[in-house]
Amino acid sequence: MTTRAARATEILMQARTSRARIPVLPPDAMPEDIEEAYAVQPAVRKAISASGGGRQIGWKIGCTNETAQRQIGVHEPFFGGIFENTSRPSPATFSTDDFFMTVIEAEVGFLMGEDLPAAAAPYDPGSVGDAVAAAFPAIEIVDSRFQDWTTIGPVQIIADNGSHGAWVHGAPVSDWQDIDLAEMAVQLYADGELVREGQGINVMDHPLNALTWLANVRAVYARDGLKAGDRVSTGTTIVVYDAKKGQHLKADFGALGSIELTLE
User: Fold this and answer.
1) Which domains does the chain carry?
2) 10 Å Cβ neighbour count for 55?
3) Which residue has the higher pLDDT, 173 or 5?
4) pTM of the complete model
């Protein structure tokens, strides 16, 4: 790990533990490009695990639709890690005191049934789909250690573990290929009121395309692939929703199921 990567990890973890946001990384900690940002992220993920996040159980993908990319000024998706102690089955409850912000994304998740090693890349959606054991509904709580996460740019978002906060997952569906995930409608309700609507097609035209992107890009930046047992959240199907303390949220994915989250 470079000196700059070590410095970035120190600053980002200090922001987490001190509960104090930062404006930007200083020059001596700022990744020079996407590749260096992904070189920082493993150290951040390791530190998150050691400081209470627990075992890493999979991956989140961010900005898999054009609306989200425009919102935060990036031009391609990015990935980060998700962790055992900040991931809960539905119905789940989280305290807003544990986050700087609670931005809600309704996402399609996949459970890997087989390895997709980097050596076999590039993959196509057919080969990736064959390696999937199940699909399920998910909610990601997006959180950021930066004061304005919409303006900091991709390298800082990536270094900050893809702005991941926490994750809620629903029941796995093994016959997921019988569901048209692209045409699948998704509704998000807050305290019983419909607040967002979307579709699976908003995720790179099909959530499986996002999973394929992850398998291939990890082969490039991490020289690693996906492993059986990994859970992957593929990016928001809806325009993100800024949830508040006390709200009860329900994301309905039709045939894929529904999930619930309460913010205390």
Assistant:
1) 56-263 (3.90.850.10)
2) 8
3) 173
4) 0.95
